[in-house]
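Hi R.,

Here are the chain sequences for the assembly we discussed:
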Amino acid sequence: MKAEIISIGSEILRGQITDTNANFIAQKLIELGIDLENISVISDNPESLLSTLKLALQRSDLIITTGGLGPTEDDITYQFIARALSLKLIKYPGAEENLKRILKKINTTLSPSNLKQTYLPEGAKIIINQYGTAPAMILEKDNKIICSFPGVPHEMKRLIEENLIPYLKEKFPPSMIKKSKTLKITGLGESSVNELIRDYMNKQTNFSFGIYANPEDIQVQITTQAPTEKEVEKMLQSSVNQLTKILGNYIYGSDEETIEEVVGNLLKSKKLKVSVAESCTGGMLGEMITRIPGSSKYFQGGVISYNARVKEDLLKVPPEAIRKYGEVSRQVAKLMAEEVRKCCHSDIGISITGIAGPGGATQKKKVGLVYMALADGKKTITQKHQLFGDRQLIRLRAARRALNMFRNYLSGI
Amino acid sequence: MKAEIISIGSEILRGQITDTNANFIAQKLIELGIDLENISVISDNPESLLSTLKLALQRSDLIITTGGLGPTEDDITYQFIARALSLKLIKYPGAEENLKRILKKINTTLSPSNLKQTYLPEGAKIIINQYGTAPAMILEKDNKIICSFPGVPHEMKRLIEENLIPYLKEKFPPSMIKKSKTLKITGLGESSVNELIRDYMNKQTNFSFGIYANPEDIQVQITTQAPTEKEVEKMLQSSVNQLTKILGNYIYGSDEETIEEVVGNLLKSKKLKVSVAESCTGGMLGEMITRIPGSSKYFQGGVISYNARVKEDLLKVPPEAIRKYGEVSRQVAKLMAEEVRKCCHSDIGISITGIAGPGGATQKKKVGLVYMALADGKKTITQKHQLFGDRQLIRLRAARRALNMFRNYLSGI
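And here is the predicted structure of the full complex:
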C-alpha cells in the first residue's frame, strides 16, 4: 500500500511554521507497517489543491490531508476533494449539533460561515471533532482511501489517534509487527559510537540501525519486525543486550527516557536527596531535575551563585579562594558542592561553575571551560570540561554533563 | 515566478526527523519576494525522484532540492537531475580537491565511493562545500533554475545564504521589497488581541496581518511591501505605531526580542540588580535571565527553595508562616522575595511559589496556582495566577508571568 500526506497551509509555504503534522502522521503509519511515499505541502488555492489531489489519487492508495477545514473562504479542502472524486457535498446533521456545542463552550454564536463546516463529500464517514469546529472524515472510493483532518496539531493528533489508527488497524491487520527501540548515549561522540558498534551492525540481517546526533546525546535506533508483538520485543531485547555489552554505561536510557528521569529514579530507589549550586548554568540544572513530577521527593533546592558575593555569603566560599583560584576553578566548584549539600540538608551536593561566553574568557581560561563537583559528605568528585557551542549550548552541555557525572556516581554506589 | 522545494530523505518519510530545511528555505524565499508553491518530500528511490523532478520541471521555474548528495549508493540526486534534464554527469576537478581537504580535516581517507561526489550534471555552476563533502550546485536550463544543496541542515543553511541568496538577488532584483515585523504580546489571549485590533486590521489595504498563538505569547505579524527599503520600513513603523496605541504595554518586544532580553535591557539602563527565589520553577527563571550574554551585570543569583527547610534556612521564612499559610501562599511569596533581595545583595528580589502538578493539589489550592512577588526594599508587589497546561507549561508560564510582572515594574519606575 502506498500512502501520502497532503499538508494544506500557506503558513508552511511562507515559512511561518514548520510542518510537524506530517512528522506525527509518518510515525503513526510506520508503526502500522504502512510506507509513506510522499508528503506534499501546498497552499489552499484551487489549482494546487485539485492537481495535487488528482496526482495523489493516481499514485497512492491512502491519502491523508491536513488543514483547510476551517470556516473561512480559504478553506476549500472538502469542496475540492468532492470535485476530484466527482462527488457532491452534502450536509451532515451530526456536524451542526457538534458545532453548536463547541461554539457554545467558547461563548461564540454560530455564524453562516461556520455552517460551511457541516458539508462533507457524500459517502464520507464523518468524524465528529470534540476539540474544535472542523469535522474530519474517512472516505473510501474506488479502492482508494481519502481522509481529512484539521491542521491544528492537537486536534489532528487526537482525531487521528482515536479514529484513523483504529480504522487502519482493522482494515489492514499488519502481517508483520514493526517496532523500534532507541538507545540514548552520552559521553561518546557520534563517530566513536559508530566505530564501536559498526562490526555488530554489519553482521545483523534482521535489524536496521540508525545513528542520530543531537546537541545533548547520541541515539541509536534499532528497528526490526516479526509476526507477533512478543517475538519483535524479544528480538529488540536481544539487540539491546548486544549493544549494551559494547556501549555499557555510556547508555543512559532508552526511548522517551530523559537523563533527569534516570537520575531521579536512581535517587528514589536509593532514598537520597540532592541539592545544586549553579553559576554559569543559572538554574538550568535545578530546572531540569524538577521537570520530573514528584522530584520534590529527592530535590531539596539550591543556590544560584552567579555573583561572587553570593558564592561567598550563601555558599561560604572564602574570598581568598576566589582570589587565588578564580570563580571558575576546581577548588571553587568543590567548595560550592560541599556547602550546598550542607545548607540544603541533602545527601549529595552538585555544583557547576564555568564560562558560558561570549565574554568572560581569559588567556588561560577559554569560553566553554566548566568545572563541576559532587560532594557526598565523605568525598568530593570534581570534573573539568572544555565544552563547545554557543552560550546556550555550552550551558545545556554543562548541565547534562553534571547529570551524567551524577548518574555514574549513583549507579556505582 | 513559481518556486518549489524537493526534500529528499527517507528519514522524513519514516517520521524520524521533521523537515526543518524547507522551513528555512521558505523564509529566505519570502524575503526575496519569491512565492513558494510546493514542498515535496520524497525518499531517494529512482522512481519517486524522477517523477517528482519531471513534475517540478513542468510546473515551476525555480526548483531547490535538498538531500541525497552523500557518498553512498542511495544518494542519487545528481544522477537523476541529469537524467530528468537529459544531461551527462561530468567530473568537476575542483570538487575532488575540496573533498580531499575536508576528509583530511576529519582524518579520513578518500574512498572510491567519495569520488562519486565529484560528478555533477554538465553545465552546473558548482558550489564548493567548505562544511562537508557534498558539493552543491546551481543549474540553468531552458529558462528553469535547478539547484541542489546537501540535506545536513547547517551545511545547507550556510551554502544557501552564501551562494543561492546572492545569486537570486542578482538574477531577480525584487521590484518591491517585502518585509514583515512581528509584535510580541503577553498578558492577553489570542481572541482578545484579535478583538482589540480587528477593526484596525480590516481598514488596512496595504498591510497583511497574521496572529499566532504560542504557549508563551501572542505574536502579531505585519507584512507590507514598497519599492524601497526606506519606504517599507516607514510603512511598517506607522502600523507598529497604530498597533502600539491599541495594545500599549501588552507589547513586550518585537521580532527576535525575548522578554528576558527586554527585562535585561531595562535593568542595564536603570543600573539595577536582581535576584530570584524559586520554588515550583526550580531554577527556570534564573536560567531564562542568564540566557542573555552579559547578564552577570545585573543578575546576582538566587535560591532554589524547593523544600520547606530551604525556605526556612536560606530565605528565613518563619516555619509558623509556612504552617499558617502554606508554602504556596501570597505571604510566603512575599517573604521569599524580600529575603532573597537582601541575601543576594540586589536591588530587587523576585519570587515564585506554586503547584506545578500533577501532584500537590489540595481542595483549596489547585494545580496551576502560583503566587509571585517582587520586592524593591520599599514595597513588595504580589500576584496570584491560576495557570493551565501540563507541569512544564505551568512552570514556563509562571516564569514568564514573573518576567512580565518585572517588566511592568521596571517600565513604570
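The first strand of chain A starts at residue 2 and ends at 8. Chain A has three domains: 2-171, 177-254, 259-412.

Let me know if anything looks off.

Best,
T.
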